[in-house]
Amino acid sequence: MKHVNILWTGGWDSTFRLCQLSRMDGVEVQPVYFYKEGVSDRTNWKKEIQAQDTLLPLLRQKEATKACILNPIRLTEKDLPQSKNFDQAFEKWKSSPLMPGQLHFLGKLPLLFPKLEYCIEGPTLKRRQQGFKLGKTQVFLEEHGFRFHFRPDGYADMDASQADPELKLLWGGFTFPILGITEMAMVPIIRGWGYEGLFKHTWTCDYDGEELCGVCHNCETKWASGLKNFFPPSAIRNHEIKAYLEKLEKPKSSPFAVDFAEPGITQRFMDYVHHGYHVVDVANVLTLPYALQPIIARVQSNHNAELQRYFDRLVADWDAKKGQVG
To answer: Between the CA atoms of 305, 214, 319 and 300, what dihedral angle is there, to the nearest 10 degrees?
Structure first.
């Protein structure tokens, strides 16, 4: 029986690959998941685990499932092997804008799970509309000696023999099974399987709200790839309100836009969504001179109250008008 290790987050891309593998005879699949507790900029790990726990029984029950899908192995930083060479390589390359910070941890997983499948998809719709044929990660790796040979199903065989040695250490333990597939191309395949209902349980959001937020980077990427119909109504609403506010912030588009200081009203709305539809402070008044603290606190409180009423009204109006903003 063929054994496959896959980095599975419970998100769209890795779940697509898990579904592919599930339909194969003679395959044993080991899902692997890494998470960092207490990391303020990545609060969605509980939602990802919840998605995994929902998805796996549903997938196992599918009539087309032939593979043996093992229970996920979930790891934290303490479970990772120590590698001084790996740490030094990451330190050298971490300043690159195309080097994901999480690779410092994820890149060690293949030391435990050889040929770990890393489910990076092909270029998003937005990137293709900008004239690019390849995704950013592929471009970055090819610029440093990696070569990819694509199979008809989108699996990318990677040749790292001429790659930069440090990058080979960081990236070379992975395989890339869907690098040649775009998210838009996945949609008809998913529909052909009849798995649309299953994919509604994936978690693609950067945050841990009750539903997908529709405004974070991951949600925006999925939206740009033509996946609007896989979002709940609240995420669609948030996305469209964000787009409306972005237009307000453009120079001279509206006198209302100048009433809002940095960070802009769009960012304030995103923060509002991510804090459970509640406007939060943007300035720590305790860092100001003592005499100014009560004055600035009062100004900030009044401004927050105005924003709260404004955002609440936008949300209520969108819900009442079934999709119209402004």
So the answer is: 0
- Compute the distance between CA of residue 47 and CA of residue 45 in angstroms, rounded to an integer: 5
Q: Are 179 and 135 in contact (CB under 8 A)?
A: yes
* From-to residues of CATH 3.40.50 in the chain: 2-197
Pairing of strands 27-34, 156-159: unpaired
Q: Counting beta carbons within 10 angstroms of the beta carbon of residue 270, is it exposed (0 to 12), middle (13 to 18) or buried (19 or more)? A: buried
Q: Does domain 2-197 have CATH number 3.40.50?
A: yes
Residue-wise pLDDT for 43-90, tens only, equals 689 999 999 999 999 999 999 999 999 999 999 999 999 999 999 999
Residue from 274, 265, 250 nearest 311 by CA: 265
Alpha-carbon dihedral angle through residues 181, 185, 186, 190, given to the nearest 10 degrees: -150
Q: From CA 241, how far away is CA 162, in angstroms rounded?
A: 48
**pTM above the 0.70 mark?**
yes
Higher per-residue confidence, 123 vs 24: 24
CB-count exposure of residue 134 (10 Å: 0-12, 13-18, 19+): middle
Does the pLDDT of residue 254 top 50, yes or no? no
Cα–Cα distance, 57 to 198 (Å, whole number): 10
